Amino acid sequence: MSWLTPEVTAILLGVVKAIVILLVVVISAALLSWVERRLLGLWQDRYGPNRVGPFGAFQLGADMLKMFFKEDWTPPFVDKLTFWLAPAIAMSALLISFAIIPITPTWGISDLNIGILLFFAMAGIAVYAVMFAGWSSNNKYSLLGGLRSAAQTVAYEVFMGLSVMGVVAVAGSFNMRDIVAAQTHVWFIIPQFFGFVTFAIAGVAVAHRSPFDYPEAEQELAAGYHTEYSGLKWGMFFVGEYVGVVLVSALLVTLFLGGWHGPFLPPIVWFLLKTGFFIMMFILLRAALPRPRYDQMMDAGWKVCLPLTLVNLVITGAVVLLHSGAAHAG
Amino acid sequence: MHKESGTGHSVVGELQAHFGEDAFVLQATKDDVPTLWVAREKLLDVLRFLRNVPKPYVMLYDLSAIDERLRTHRQGLPDSDFTVFYHLLSIERNSDIRIKVALSADSLKLPTALAIWPNANWYEREVWDLFGIVFEGHPHLTRLLMPPTWQGHPLRKDYPARATEFDPFMLDAAKQDAEQEALRFNPEEWGMKRGNNEEDFMFLNLGPNHPSAHGAFRIVLQLDGEEIVDCVPDIGYHHRGAEKMAERQSWHSYIPYTDRIDYLGGVMNNLPYVLSVEKLAGIEVPDRVKTIRVMMSEFFRIANHLLFLGTYIQDIGGMTPIFFMFTDRQKAYDVIEAITGFRMHPAWFRIGGVAHDLPKGWDRLVRQFVDWMPKRLDEYVKAALKNSILKARTINVAQYNTEEALAWGVTGPGLRATGVEYDLRKARPYSGFENFEFEVPIAHNGDAYDRCMVRVEEMRQSLRIIRQCLDNMPAGPYKADHPLTCPPPKERTLKDIDTLINHFLGVSWGPIMPAGETSQLIEATKGINSYYLTSDGSTMSYRTRIRTPSFTHLQQIPSVIRGSMIPDLIAYLASIDFVMADVDR
């Protein structure tokens, strides 16, 4: 067993951890479809799925069986390569971003020094899922969904990046573990409140969740970009959306709510509790709000959120400089 | 009580003073609408005069035709094979006038009235579609309700009404392709360009199968990005020939068909029909009947408006409220079901009464509902309708003013949202509405938001009316003691032979209504609904014209929505509150 050096063990352990995290994320994302339906049912004065298993908890299994065994149909008029690529991107792009999430002091996939930048890159790629799907489907509703997605992306990605720069400035690092470590005493939601608000708004848009679900906007565009999809390919969009929800919630926790920090309970519990809270908020948001017209949303993005994040960044920068100057002088 | 029609109306004098007495033939009808026949050559002059007379007839309320070729009772009327009638409405006079034109079968032509009222467009297309009468100068005289490939004109008397009179229907692949190809939208046919120098337009089929189309409604959008350059509504996908069927059903057995015209209106649909038939028959119903009818109609107004409110918010993207409104609506249906035995389409009103008396304990159920509802409505306004996103989506969206509303024949909440206080329950009380205290809610901005808020307030007023019914329900019979009441009162049938014979005929053949014409307009859930009945002294109607509010409301869409975006169109469609059965009949 000479090959089992400590390095190899570390790599194997890393791989196992990565696989565990991947499975947990995918399964919990899929399970969210049940959670969401039950919660919506609760808030909407109805039952939701309650037939399969206790409290309908096995609904997920039934849904998956149905999706796996449904014919994998590709309409004859689509552009096949991009049509197939789109759902793959939708599911994988945001899933890869989980690599940077520090779950507990010891758990996490990768300790990247550019951490948060990887997420922005992946969020940028995820947009191609919607645009490819919209374009390749050869369907006017899909195309409009894709167009909206492109316009929306330009509007929110700008201020999404800027909204986090305050956090980066204060923590002095792009590394997610450093950012969590910087929140030992005060969570960034307090000094970086505007950053938190704008990032949360942009996060809803990244995940294409109501009320910013313009690319699909059922009442307007039928099913939008995934009109022509069915079966497993549609399922990948579906799960991709929930992966987005989980990811944005985890990022909000890491960047603004102190990650695993918290008294009494073990770190993993804190992380899960906080993430769960934001997931609930996503669902509550969907239950509670109507959808603004998408030009109104873009107006809000350019005219309110962008200036807000800029002001926030300027003030943060000034405070950081002042502080370091004072430290030097001291 | 049926005074000689027309003599009481100043407009007849005004017309005769202007055009000479010989220009008109006055027809006596059993409603209070002066009915005048004019020659085809003078038609446009007369219509234009009425449109511009002091206190003008601003609204082309209805336009249709009658195939007179088989009609026997037409003493004193000009010779006519096909008669086209124009039903005009004046808000200032609060009265109507009906202008009729006689056409002979070898010259079925009329000038179009499009220049006077824009909503003549669809009405004239409908008349051409169903009767084959040509309107000269009409820019697009094509099929409206029937498919573009249809042969024949179904409302003609020589057109068969039963499936057994046709060859069996077959739809093979080739025919299906041909039908679909016939539905392909061709922009040039509508005078639209496929693009300009800089860009191509997208032509988007919204419907006939779309989540927000509220039924089988198709609207073809000419899009520049997401901006609607122009659009063409296409209807007829829900056409079931309700007017044709009326000519094959007894007066009594047609009642269930009326339920399904505005399929959310339930017994509210029965009301204009039975009121019209009662005018023909000369039946005066007891007060208890009137009050029960008012109460049940207002229940359906609330049920309708609740569904409207839920789908309205849902179309704007708020997914939760509709579930709460379905709960409320179910509570209304619980009461309706206990009283009528059915939920959505009770077909419960009868000629001369209602189907049964109110059941024991009805007052407890009704009281529970009127106590339950007001708090819920307050909650909806606070939680959903004052939401700033919803307001941003609907205020100043799809706005039109009173003048436009009247020119397009808009009635109901869509008209009252522009600031006109015109509600037939107040303006021309029927079925005892004069005895109730209620207000007519109006708004002033005429946009998608106001149309919603007017309806919310209407629900409160309906609750008020129901409460008054509850507190003051008159005692007495639930059926008029009249030989034409159907089914007739049965108490004396086994005591004397005359009543027994009468009962037997009324139940087997159905009652025979005296010959004549009449109509009744009511303030239905979605606007003014009316039945214009022509009886030829038979067990069946000779012609039943159903005027529905939604028809004109859809026709107005392009004039309102040009230059807006797709989400605005969705908000607009939601705010109209239409069902396709009410459009296509």
Explain the overall architecture.
The complex is a heterodimer of chains A (330) and B (585). Chain A is mostly helical and 330 residues long. Chain A has helices spanning 6-43, 59-69, 80-97, 115-136, 140-171, 176-181, 193-206, 218-221, 231-256, 267-288, 294-329. The N and C termini of chain A lie far apart (56 Å). Chain B has helices spanning 10-19, 43-52, 120-131, 173-182, 242-246, 255-259, 267-281, 287-315, 321-340, 362-385, 388-394, 402-407, 413-416, 424-427, 448-471, 497-508, 549-555, 557-561, 566-576, 580-584; strands at residues 25-27, 35-38, 59-67, 82-90, 95-103, 109-111, 134-136, 202-206, 218-224, 227-234, 349-350, 353-354, 516-523, 528-535, 541-547. In chain B, the strands form 5 sheets. Chain B has a 5-stranded mixed β-sheet with strand order 1-2-5-4-3. In chain B, strands 8-9-10 form a 3-stranded antiparallel β-sheet. In chain B, strands 13-14-15 form a 3-stranded antiparallel β-sheet. In chain B, α15 runs parallel beside α19 (566-576). At the A-B interface, α5, α8, α10 and α11 of A face β8, α8, α9, α11 and α19 of B.
Secondary-structure map:
The complex is a heterodimer of chains A (330) and B (585).
Chain A: H1 6-43, H2 59-69, H3 80-97, H4 115-136, H5 140-171, H6 176-181, H7 193-206, H8 218-221, H9 231-256, H10 267-288, H11 294-329
Helix pairs in contact in A: 1-9, 1-10, 3-4, 3-9, 4-5, 5-7, 5-11, 7-9, 9-10
Chain B: H1 10-19, E1 25-27, E2 35-38, H2 43-52, E3 59-67, E4 82-90, E5 95-103, E6 109-111, H3 120-131, E7 134-136, H4 173-182, E8 202-206, E9 218-224, E10 227-234, H5 242-246, H6 255-259, H7 267-281, H8 287-315, H9 321-340, E11 349-350, E12 353-354, H10 362-385, H11 388-394, H12 402-407, H13 413-416, H14 424-427, H15 448-471, H16 497-508, E13 516-523, E14 528-535, E15 541-547, H17 549-555, H18 557-561, H19 566-576, H20 580-584
Parallel strand pairs in B: 2-5, 6-7
Antiparallel strand pairs in B: 1-2, 3-4, 4-5, 8-9, 9-10, 11-12, 13-14, 14-15
Helix pairs in contact in B: 8-9, 8-15, 8-19, 9-10, 10-15, 15-19
